């Protein structure tokens, strides 16, 4: 019988060179950082309807009125083309003056940095900023009152337009929201002389073929 | 995955080994994996799309009259519940004999066919224009194409004037859908109006709801 060769295992652990993997990951990471933009999360779910419009939403000078699936109305605006313009805290200050609430610098700063839409009635806004727990914060997001007795949404629209005259209205509504609710918002915007606005939609393809 | 670095065995005394130092890249790979996952979850490739819309200014002066439009070109589109769409041409003159509603849907063969048939001339013009752009027969900068199409729409005087009226049980999704159809079919003139009581009655009759409510509101 032939002598079996003894297989010798190296007692060194094999060394895998990770450098190419790091290179690859760097490329992917930089690509993702450059091509994507952050998803804005809304305080309440909104399923936007579909349309064929390919127009991109503006980066700044916009105020968004969100009508969530449950009918609650939220308001959001941006700081303008330059954060030094501080349109958000200025608008909040005007709102505070209107409703007799004095906001501290700390609260104004918190509002300036707040990433998503606000659906808190103005009288609870101080408690909202004071709350630390995200769950507690979410409990305040009940929607902005917009009836004729307590028309806070109208005031937000009015002061946002006063602070930033270039601001454009954008409506982001859920597809299943009953039309009368949307009509209330449209009427309110028209009451404050806003006749041009954009509706946020998701892109879908459509074809129109006319036969002879 | 971590690499175990073993102490060198043996070796010459005093003289350090002359080998290029090996940097362990594994923690860096871990970190980058985490960053990539984070970016993939929190960001989106596409920006949100918007559809522009203009409403006619509200008539603030009570003596001012709404603009008159010819009834022969008018097409009334009524949005009903459960994504149902109704339409009737012209205007209602006699409230005692309301015109019948035709029911259709949001499919390609539904309201789009109705609108395209009525908007034939203008749609052909826009189609021919876009074809010329594609084939290079007309060379225009990108931003003038839109204004040229809106000029075509402005000059059109045969297409329908669509009045969109939403019944109280319709949804925002239907409203966007019908505005979208206006864009797809290249309708030059359309507007959103409040639904009139007789149109609500017409929808209720078409839905088969008891007409007592309709007649009560008529009186």
The stretches of 5 or more residues of chain B where confidence is low (pLDDT under 50) are: 210-219
Name the helicity range of chain A.
25-40%
Structural class of chain B: alpha/beta
Level of helix content of chain B?
Answer: 25-40%
DSSP strand content of chain A:
5-15%
Oligomer: heterodimer
Q: Could you say which overall geometry of chain B the principal axes of the C-alpha atoms support?
A: elongated
> How is the biggest beta sheet of chain A arranged?
5 strands, mixed
SS strand fraction of chain B = 15-25%
CATH class of the domain at 71-119 and 159-218 in chain B: Alpha Beta
The shape of chain A, in one word, is extended
Radius of gyration of chain B from CA coordinates: 32 Å
What Rg of chain A, in angstroms, do the CA atoms define? 26 Å
> H/E order of the elements of chain A?
HEEEEEHHHHHEHE
Number of strands of chain B: 7
Spatial arrangement of strands, main beta sheet of chain A:
2-7-6-4-5
Number of helices of chain A: 7
Q: What is the CATH topology descriptor of the domain at 71-119 and 159-218 in chain B?
A: Nucleotidyltransferase, domain 5
Strand order of the largest sheet of chain B: 5-4-3-6-7
Q: What is the second-level CATH architecture of the domain at 71-119 and 159-218 in chain B?
A: 2-Layer Sandwich
Average per-residue pLDDT of chain A, rounded, comes to 87
Structural account:
The complex is a heterodimer of chains A (212) and B (219). Chain A is of the alpha/beta class and 212 residues long. Chain A has one domain (51-202). Chain A has 7 helices and 7 strands, in the order H-E-E-E-E-E-H-H-H-H-H-E-H-E. Chain A has helices at residues 19-35, 87-99, 105-113, 125-130, 134-140, 152-163, 179-191, and strands at 37-38, 50-51, 55-56, 62-67, 73-77, 168-173, 196-203. In chain A, a hairpin with a 5-residue loop joins strand 4 and strand 5 (73-77). In chain A, helix 2 packs across helix 3 and helix 2 (87-99) packs across helix 6. Chain A is extended. Chain A starts with 18 loop residues before the first helix and ends in a 9-residue tail after the last strand. The mean pLDDT of chain A is 87. Chain B is α/β, with parallel strands linked by helices and 219 residues long. Among the domains of chain B are: 71-119 and 159-218, Nucleotidyltransferase, domain 5, CATH 3.30.420.270; 121-158, no CATH class. Chain B has 7 helices and 7 strands. Chain B has helices at residues 26-42, 111-118, 120-135, 142-155, 172-184, 197-207, 212-218, and strands at 43-44, 49-54, 74-79, 85-89, 102-104, 161-166, 189-193. In chain B, strands 5-4-3-6-7 form a 5-stranded mixed beta sheet, with helices on both faces. In chain B, helix 6 packs antiparallel against helix 7. Chain B is elongated and about 115 Å long. Chain B starts with 25 loop residues before the first helix and ends with a helix. Mean pLDDT of chain B is 81; it is low at 210-219. Classes of the chains: A alpha/beta (212), B alpha/beta (219).
């Amino acid at each position: 019988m032939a002598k079996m060769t003894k297989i010798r295992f190296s007692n060194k652990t094999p060394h895998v060179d990770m450098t190419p993997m790091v290179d690859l990951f760097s490329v992917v990471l930089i690509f993702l950082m450059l091509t994507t933009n952050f998803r804005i999360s809304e305080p309440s779910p909104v399923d936007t309807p579909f349309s064929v419009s390919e127009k991109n939403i503006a980066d700044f000078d916009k105020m968004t009125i969100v009508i969530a699936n449950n009918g609650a109305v939220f308001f959001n605006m941006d700081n303008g083309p330059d954060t030094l313009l501080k349109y958000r805290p200025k608008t909040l200050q005007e709102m505070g003056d209107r409703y007799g609430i004095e906001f501290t610098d700390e609260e104004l700063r918190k509002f300036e940095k707040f990433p998503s839409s606000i659906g808190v009635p103005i009288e609870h806004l101080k408690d909202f900023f004071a709350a630390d727990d995200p769950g507690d914060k979410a409990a305040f997001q009940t929607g902005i009152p917009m009836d004729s007795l307590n028309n806070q949404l109208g005031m937000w629209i009015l002061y946002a337009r006063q602070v930033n005259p270039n601001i454009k209205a954008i409506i982001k509504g859920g597809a299943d929201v009953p039309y009368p609710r949307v009509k209330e918002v449209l009427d309110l915007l028209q009451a404050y002389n806003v006749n041009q606005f954009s509706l946020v939609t998701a892109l879908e393809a459509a074809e129109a073929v006319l036969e002879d | 995955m971590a690499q175990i670095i073993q102490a060198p065995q043996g070796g010459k005394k005093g003289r350090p080994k002359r080998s290029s130092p090996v940097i362990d890249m594994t923690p860096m790979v871990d970190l980058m994996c985490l960053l990539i996952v984070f970016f993939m979850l929190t960001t989106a490739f596409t920006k949100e799309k918007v559809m522009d819309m203009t409403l006619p200014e509200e008539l603030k002066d009570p003596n001012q009259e709404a603009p008159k439009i010819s009834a022969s070109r008018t097409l009334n589109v009524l949005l009903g519940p459960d994504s149902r769409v109704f339409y009737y041409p012209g205007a209602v003159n006699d409230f005692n004999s309301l015109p019948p509603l035709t029911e259709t849907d949001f499919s390609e063969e539904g309201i789009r066919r109705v609108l395209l048939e009525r908007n034939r001339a203008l749609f052909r013009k826009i189609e021919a224009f876009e074809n010329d752009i594609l084939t290079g027969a007309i060379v225009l900068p990108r931003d003038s194409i839109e204004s040229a199409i809106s000029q075509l729409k402005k000059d059109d005087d045969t297409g329908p004037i669509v009045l969109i009226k939403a019944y109280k049980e319709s949804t925002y999704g239907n409203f966007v859908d019908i505005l979208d159809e206006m864009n797809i079919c290249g309708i030059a003139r359309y507007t959103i109006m409040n639904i009139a009581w007789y149109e609500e009655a017409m929808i209720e009759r078409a839905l088969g709801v008891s007409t007592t409510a309709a007649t009560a509101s008529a009186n």
